[in-house]
C-alpha cells in the first residue's frame, strides 16, 4: 500500500478501476474543456452586447467622452475572442455529431430565436434586416462545411481542397 501511494504522487495520470477490477492508468487532459470554451465565448459575446447597451448607460453615449469610448472599444476587442472559439467549436461539433441535419436545424433555430433580441439591442427595432446576429454566421459556416463534406464524399478529395 505504501509503495502505491508513493508511485501515484505527483503524476499526470489518474488510476481507474476498469472492467473486472483491473487497474489502469489514464492520462489527465490538459487545457480547456468544451464547456469552459463555451463560457469564455459567452462572456466575450456578453461584452460585445454590453459595449453597445450597458456601457452607454454607465458612461454616457457621447463619443467625446474618452472613458465611455475606451470602455466600448475594449469591450468590443475582447468580444473578438469569441469568433475563433465558436468557429472551432462549430467544426468540432460538425465532426462529432451523429446527425448533421439535426445539428444544422438546431443551429438555425437558435439563430432565429436570437434575432429579435439582437435587433432590439442593435437597432432598437424588433425586426431589422440591416444586420443579422452572429449565430447566422455560424449557420452559414455550417452550411459551407456540409457542402464541402458532400463534395468530398461524391468527388475526389482534391475537389474539396480546390473548392475550399
Question: What's a concise summary of this model?
Answer:
With 164 residues, the protein is mostly helical. It has a domain at 97-164.
Task: Describe this structure as you would to a colleague.
Helix 5 runs parallel beside helix 7 (134-154) and helix 6 (100-123) runs antiparallel to helix 7. A two-stranded antiparallel ribbon has the order 1-2. It is mainly α and 164 residues long. It contains 8 helices and 2 strands; from the N terminus they run αββααααααα. The protein has a domain at 97-164. The chain is globular, with a radius of gyration of 23 Å.
Question: What are the salient characteristics of this protein?
Answer:
two-stranded antiparallel ribbon, disordered N terminus, 6% strand, mainly alpha
Largest sheet: 2 strands, antiparallel
Q: In sequence order, what are the helices and strands, one letter per element?
A: HEEHHHHHHH
Task: Specify the helix fraction band.
Answer: 55-70%
Q: Average pLDDT value?
A: 79
Q: What overall geometry do the principal axes of the alpha carbons give?
A: globular
The number of helical segments is 8
Unreliable stretches (pLDDT < 50, length at least 5) are 1-13
Q: How many β strands by DSSP? A: 2
| Alpha-carbon distance between the two ends | 57 Å
Give the strand order of the largest sheet, numbering strands 1, 2, ... along the chain: 1-2
Share of β-strand residues: 5-15%
Rg measurement, Å: 23 Å
Amino acid at each position: 500500500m505504501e509503495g502505491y501511494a508513493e508511485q501515484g504522487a505527483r503524476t499526470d495520470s489518474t488510476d481507474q478501476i476498469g472492467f473486472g477490477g483491473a487497474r489502469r492508468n489514464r492520462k489527465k487532459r490538459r487545457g480547456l474543456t468544451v464547456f469552459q470554451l463555451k463560457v469564455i465565448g459567452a462572456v466575450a459575446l456578453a461584452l460585445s452586447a454590453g459595449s453597445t447597451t450597458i456601457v452607454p448607460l454607465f458612461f454616457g453615449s457621447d463619443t467625446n467622452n474618452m472613458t465611455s469610448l475606451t470602455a466600448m472599444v475594449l469591450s468590443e476587442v475582447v468580444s473578438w475572442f469569441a469568433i475563433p472559439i465558436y468557429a472551432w467549436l462549430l467544426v468540432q461539433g460538425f465532426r462529432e455529431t451523429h446527425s448533421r441535419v439535426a445539428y444544422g436545424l438546431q443551429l438555425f433555430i437558435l439563430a432565429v430565436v436570437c434575432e429579435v433580441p439582437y435587433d432590439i439591442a442593435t437597432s432598437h427595432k424588433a425586426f431589422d434586416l440591416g444586420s443579422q446576429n452572429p449565430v447566422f454566421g455560424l449557420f452559414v459556416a455550417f452550411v459551407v462545411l456540409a457542402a464541402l463534406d458532400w463534395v468530398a464524399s461524391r468527388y475526389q478529395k482534391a475537389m474539396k481542397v480546390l473548392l475550399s
